[in-house]
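Design job #97: recover the sequence.
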């Protein structure tokens, strides 16, 4: 299984989009400061996750969300209550 996920920094509300094969391990890596792009905004919490059986589908979805266009805006609207908490 492959996961496309959105993390929210508890520090300042910054969002991070990623994809992985192991969501538990990856969240731990983000919170342990292993990922250079996210270590300055620790701690992170998972606010959204999609599951795919195909790696290419997950990677393509991550890329679409990261383009920060209509897809990103619609997704943020759909999970707005999760982002507020």
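Job complete. Output follows.
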């Amino acid at each position: 299984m492959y996961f496309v996920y959105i993390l929210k920094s508890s520090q300042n509300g910054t969002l991070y989009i990623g994809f992985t094969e192991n969501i538990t391990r990856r969240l731990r890596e983000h919170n342990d400061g292993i990922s250079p792009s996210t270590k300055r905004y620790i701690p992170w919490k998972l606010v959204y996750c999609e599951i795919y059986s195909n790696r290419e589908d997950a990677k393509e979805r991550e890329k679409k969300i990261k383009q920060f266009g209509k897809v990103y805006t619609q997704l943020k609207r759909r999970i707005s209550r999760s982002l507020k908490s």
